[in-house]
Amino acid sequence: MNLSIIIPIYNEEESILKLYQELKKVLSNLDMQYEIIAVNDGSDDNSYRVLKKISQNDNAFKVVNFRKNFGQTAAISAGIDISKGEIIIPIDADLENKPEDIPNLLNKLNEGYDIVSGWRKHRWKESFFTRRLTSYIANLLISKIVGLKLHDYGCTMKAYKRDVIKDIKFYGDMHRFIPAYAMWYGAKIAEIPIDHEPRQYGESKYGIGRTFRVLLDILTVKFLTDYLNRPMHFFGRIGFWLFFFSFLSGISALCLKVFLGISLILTPLPLLTVFLIVIGIQFILMGFLAEILIRTYYESQNKPIYLIKNKINF
After folding, report:
1. What's the average model confidence in pLDDT over 47-73?
2. Going by CATH, does the domain composed of 3-225+306-312 fall within 3.40.50.2300?
3. Percent of the chain, pLDDT > 90?
4. Which of 64, 205, 234, 296 could covalently link to 227 via disulfide, CB atoms 3.0 to 4.6 Å apart?
């Protein structure tokens, strides 16, 4: 199998058939074997019925049906685990990604890259403040922090060579950071502009709350890519900075006492400030430790992050 197309689906009954028709039109002109894997991520509309009907007439169209909604990362992860293609391309089911861009991704991949990321360069019809501005800021932050400059980390449509992502485990909402993880393993990554269309049916599954989740994910990715094999460098650096600030605080308190005769015991504000800073740092560190523990829990026991109810055409 040369190519696997993965479609994570959650309540997209109106767009599935049209997307399938557009995919078949493009894929039939490619000189390569392919499979289409649709992952029904616990949809509560008629998405599964539509998928099942399509699969009855096309053996290359395969369906994975989750028992409940596990999220887009789990859906993409399941598709990667089950797929057989040497090249893997996830694509959104809402028709915002255009199948016509698949050949462009493949052509760029053939130039010697391991991953080619789509860049939705023209998103002018989307809301400026809730989508375009927040997306720009998030992508800028991610690029600076992880050290890989991409314009559009959030674009689902990317082309991957199997050998660079087959051993990467995904949790939470980490699918958008696959290129950053792959870069850590030495992957060669490129980015090309792709078409972007407004959603034709239904409503977006993303809200402003996603921005805050992305910011937390950025911190996690930075920690896992830079400090997973040497966590003491991370924790130790924070520890030394805390000692440094506590030293400055002690010197300041001593100066106030000696030169001005002011006792800091009279006000609770310095103590409250230090207390909040320490507690905040502890929570962040516990979050990092939890990330390591959850990976140990899943990977040491080979536990998946999803539960499949049934499969079709496998």
Report:
1. 96
2. no
3. 44
4. 234
Report residue 2 as tokens: 């040369």
The first and second tokens of residue 31, run together, are 């000189």
- Tokens 């800028």 label which residue? 140
As a whole number of angstroms, the distance between CA 14 and CA 255 comes to: 71
Residue 266 Cα distances to 109, 215, 247, 261, 305, angstroms: 67, 39, 20, 12, 53
Six token digits for residue 63: 């369906």
Identify residue 214 by its one-letter amino acid code.
V
In the chain, where are the structural domains located? 3-225+306-312, 231-300
Q: Is the dihedral of CA 60, 8, 18, 193 positive or negative?
A: negative
Answer whether 0.70 is exceeded by the pTM.
yes
Give the mean pLDDT of 69-73: 92
Instruction: Determine contact, residues 29/61, Cβ cutoff 8 Å.
Output: no
Instruction: Tell me the C-alpha distance between 229 and 15, whole Å.
Output: 44
Tell me if 55 sits within 8 A of 62, measured CB to CB: yes
Tell me: pLDDT of 210 over 90: no
Does position 266 have pLDDT exceeding 90, yes or no?
Answer: no
* Mode of pairing for the β-strands spanning 115-120 and 158-161: antiparallel
